[in-house]
Design goal:
The chain is α+β, with helices and mostly antiparallel strands. It is built from three helices and nine strands, in the order βαββββαβββαβ.
Length: 170
């Protein structure tokens, strides 16, 4: 993990900050005016199933946008116990064509409900040891409320509708 150092000598006390732009409601990370470096970016949904270890950094980087002020993440990990039993790992299987289609529907539903910019859903298949991520969901939006609600909806709906099965190795 990286650390951040702030050197107070790097701040100029003479610097004047520009006045804040007016608030804009219901923007899905859209620029406030044409003078913001003319940033335009198409929304994207990234869905991936893999047997490889998931990277939180990789998934979060996929949804970062200069048009957005929020990135919300859900990271589901394997815990070391279930109903009093010691868990070694979880084994995941999926019916991939249907699973991908269902996740695309979830992304579409999210876009109907909230003004979000990018959505990424990565799910691990095969064996997932204790403390490793089995799923990472990331959503970017102009404001935190929308991305937080979208991430919560995504994981709840995925667990209810997507044909992914897990088996405990105890």
């Amino acid at each position: 993990m990286s650390s951040l150092e702030i050197n107070s000598s790097s701040f100029n006390q003479e610097t004047k900050l520009p006045s804040s732009p007016p608030l804009v409601e219901d923007s899905a990370c859209e620029p406030l005016g044409e003078d913001l470096n003319e940033v335009e970016e198409n929304s994207k949904d990234v869905i991936k199933f893999t047997s490889e270890k998931l990277s939180i950094d990789e998934v979060s980087q996929l949804v970062i946008s200069p048009l957005c002020g929020a990135v919300s993440l859900f990271v589901g990990t394997t815990r070391n116990n279930f109903e009093g039993k010691k868990v070694i790992s979880l084994e995941y299987e999926a019916y991939l064509p249907m699973a991908e289609n269902e996740i695309r529907k979830i992304c579409s539903d999210i876009r109907q409900k909230w003004p979000v910019k990018h959505i990424a859903v990565f799910h691990r298949l095969g064996s997932v040891p204790v403390s490793e991520a089995s799923i990472i969901i990331a959503v970017s939006s102009a404001h935190r409320a929308e991305s937080l609600q979208a991430v919560s909806y995504a994981i709840d709906t995925l667990k209810a509708k997507v044909p992914i099965w897990k088996k405990l190795r105890v």
